[in-house]
Specification:
Elements (H helix, E strand, L loop, with lengths): L1 H18 L9 H25 L2 H8 L2 H12 L6 H21 L7 H23 L5 H15 L4 H7 L5 H28 L3 H5 L4 H13 L6 H19 L4
Length: 252
Amino acid sequence: MLFRFLLASITLIAIGAAKKIRLPKPKDLPMFALGGFVGVFLYMLFSKNGAVYTEAGIGSFIVSSSPVFVLVLATLLLREKVRRACWVGVIVSFVGLVVIMLSQATGLVPDIGVLFFLLATIATSLHSIIQRKLTRSYTAIEATTYSIIFATLFMLIYSPALIREIPGTSLSTNLLAAYLGIFPAAIAYLSWGWAIAKAEKTAYVTVFIYLIPLIASALAYFWLGETLSLLALLGGAVVIAGMVITNVTNKK
């Protein structure tokens, strides 16, 4: 985890230097630190521990429910006013998410792993709110870069383990870590920050998280030969319908 985000930080610093981004104001450092701690460090920690006790597939469905949490938090903390249709769209998509989950689950047994994934969901939802607040004063790349740097600083507690493991790590493993650091970490967080900054309402963007299980199921079908049931397709259709309600109806 530390190696991955060290690479993510280096990538974002390089992009930031090329773009000549501003340094953060001292008064905003606590908010950047909070975003890095909650939205990245705690999210990764909870997800990692959740995967130990619960199937990763089930965990991904739980985390993908974050748009519901984001909508509530945006209403309470950011005072964003959304129309009733937005609530309807988010809930409709959530129903579709549940349908997809039921089509994939072979045994859903509540355990501590579910709790960890729920905490990860809350953490990533708070991160969206914090990013939304930061991007009111900073660009997406500024907000993302400084949050990731703070997250990496928190991860330095894993330095002894990294130093101990690096010598025995294979080249393929290091290349995989590099890929994860540059693309799913640096580029993904940067893209998310940009989307949050540009969105009229936070919920208009976060509802797209519901697509993750659908896309994952489709990729597993085409690349891994896994079965894609009619129930999963139905759930995907419901997810997309909810997204249309959220993003189209509210812009009229």
